[in-house]
Design a protein that fits this description.
The protein is an alpha/beta fold. It folds into three domains: about 10-180, Neutral Protease Domain 2 (Neutral Protease, domain 2, Orthogonal Bundle); about 185-305, Immunoglobulin-like (Sandwich), CATH 2.60.40; about 365-535, Zincin-like fold, CATH 1.25.50. About 55% of the residues lie in helices and about 10% in strands. The strands form three sheets. Strands 7-4-3-8 form a four-stranded mixed β-sheet. The longest helix has 18 residues, at about 55-70. It is globular, with a radius of gyration of 24 Å.
């Protein structure tokens, strides 16, 4: 919490333990500390006039924290993480009919609590990143300095910020931001070849079949080859330009602007053939857009998988592999298609060749992350070599209490997955541990059983006095990704609704909304009508728009 002069933290968002804390925790702690420090300028030195501009606090803290991390640890390459966590996370909510505008009217206390969501944090931060890239950092920084100097020790509104940025840059910031802040949703830009002309048309992106007439002024930087860029401002329903002799067109360089691109087959094939000329942000963004279009029924799963299988099967960039494995695993959880499983195993095998099974001193932190997700994926498909490695590591740990910090989470989860007998062993370790980071890993492991009865037992345990309710989220996160537990998870949640409602104080907290977001989409995938009926009947203030 960003109190002025007395910043407070949960233990596992501040404390690192030598020999126990993983590098993932180190990175998370750095991000949280940076986030709260940014609030000393955005939130404390300059404070929003009213709750409708909450995003002025949280968006800046979200985005500027990552700029801080990038400044101190450029080798972390944090922008791929920001893209997958913040930008894509915001789009997943903002593509729904039930989304809200960043600027929202606030008339009662329940509405205030509801504002602490992906729109205020992640979408707002993504819009700030878009303007930063559009203006270039010197002009952006100059505008921020004007804003802070003018409104220090006072209150400000969003328009005050736009005026400062516009004054510093002489660009139409107020008009651009008015559309992105005051309107719901975000653009889908269609790219089509028509003889010697490139046609670009925009409309609002929806996951479901729905239409409205929102339009945006979209700043973007088009990439035409390895080193050829062109800034554009799409301020009409359609835009045309003559084709160049460039080998490909990527419309959103560094995926810096907040929109999804739908390429026609001509442009998509060119991007696939020249995928090595796209950087990590761009290829990850391209795959994200393909699957977003798949979910919205504008592209088939088979077409998306064929693109990946055809053009990316020899991909070796660490951040790209990490995203591909994670995204495909999420889709497999819902579809159980063998083709997706084969791709996950293929990419994970490539990843393990790159990372090795054992962590190395001084290795790239993204190599560490890739190893973890690859081991987890291969373990979940019972790959013999990986299962043997995990079992051996755990046996050694029980004897010597020595286990590398970056392996602990995946080892704990892997042994519960392999053998029901390890459930009680992990539960005992959880109760004996006094370190919150360790307890979180052990708690998540309890939700990783193939046995639905043990999944239910883990969830019941999560509501016991042995587990702090603020840590219960770790169990929900694990069971919501467990293909043998998602339906049990959903039924258990319905059965324990009143207990959970009481524990959150009867209203929709951030924790409660995140639990809903994890449980419902996976657990109710085969019974959507039941979920809709249940949520209508059991409303909780602030959770359903």
């Amino acid at each position: 919490m960003e109190n002025w002069g007395a910043i407070t933290f949960r233990e596992n968002a501040l404390l690192l333990y030598s020999g126990l804390s993983s590098r993932a925790t180190m990175q998370r702690v750095a991000e949280v500390v940076a986030h709260e420090l940014v609030h000393q300028w955005f939130g404390n030195l300059v404070t929003m006039k009213w709750w409708d501009d909450l995003w002025l606090n949280e968006s800046f803290a979200t985005y500027m924290a990552y700029k801080s991390l990038d400044n101190f640890w450029p080798e972390w390459n944090v922008w791929t993480d920001y893209l997958t966590y913040a930008v894509f996370g915001a789009m997943s909510l903002d593509g729904l009919k039930s989304t809200r505008a960043i600027h929202a009217k606030v008339l009662n206390p329940d509405e205030i609590d509801e504002l602490f969501d992906e729109i205020a944090y992640e979408k707002g931060g993504s819009i700030l990143r878009m303007i930063d890239e559009y203006l270039e950092f010197k002009k952006y920084r100059e505008g921020l300095r004007l804003y802070i100097h003018k409104y220090q020790y006072a209150n400000a509104q969003a328009n005050d910020l736009w005026e400062s940025l516009q004054l510093a840059s002489n660009k139409p910031i107020k008009e651009i931001m008015k559309r992105f802040i005051m309107q719901k949703g975000f653009p889908l830009v269609n790219v089509k070849r028509d003889k010697n002309t490139i046609l670009m048309r925009q409309k609002r992106f929806f996951y479901l079949d729905y239409k409205d007439h929102n339009k945006w002024i979209v700043p973007l930087i088009a990439k035409f080859s390895g080193n050829s860029y062109e800034p554009l401002l799409l301020n009409k329903n359609h835009h045309e330009r003559r084709m160049t002799k460039s080998p490909f067109l990527y419309l959103n360089s560094d995926y810096s602007s907040f929109f999804i691109t739908k390429y026609d087959q001509y442009h998509l094939d060119l991007l696939g053939k020249h995928s090595k000329k796209l950087n990590e942000l761009e290829i990850i963004g391209l795959v994200h857009d393909l699957f977003s279009l798949t979910v919205s029924n504008q592209f088939s799963v088979e077409e998306a998988l064929s693109f990946i299988d055809g053009f990316l099967k020899e991909e070796k960039r660490v951040e790209v592999l990490q995203y591909l494995i994670g995204r495909l695993a999420g889709i497999y959880l819902l579809t159980r298609q063998d083709r997706i499983k084969r791709l996950i195993v293929t990419f994970s095998d490539i990843a393990i060749i790159i990372t090795g099974l054992e962590p190395k001193n001084g290795e790239d932190i993204n190599v560490t992350h890739l190893r973890t997700i690859s081991l987890s994926s291969l373990s979940s498909f019972d790959e013999e070599k990986i299962v043997s490695f995990i079992s051996g590591k755990f046996k050694t740990y029980l004897q010597s209490k020595k286990l590398h910090p970056d392996l602990r989470g995946v080892i704990y989860s892997g042994v519960v997955w392999k053998d029901d007998k390890n459930f009680e062993v992990i539960r005992k370790l959880f109760e004996e541990s006094t370190i919150q980071e360790e307890k979180a890993k052990l708690l998540m492991a309890l939700g990783n059983s193939k046995n639905p009865k043990l999944v239910e037992r883990a969830l019941n345990y999560g509501l016991s006095e042995k587990v702090r309710f603020s840590d219960f989220f770790y169990l929900i996160a694990a069971t919501s990704r467990n293909r043998y537990g998602i339906e049990t998870n959903y039924e258990w949640f319905k059965k324990n609704w009143n207990t959970i409602k009481k524990r959150v104080g009867g209203h929709s907290t951030v924790l409660f909304r995140r639990m809903l977001k994890m449980i419902i989409p996976t657990g109710a995938i085969k019974n959507v009508d039941d979920a809709e009926s249940f949520l209508r009947k059991h409303k909780i203030s602030g959770s359903i728009r």
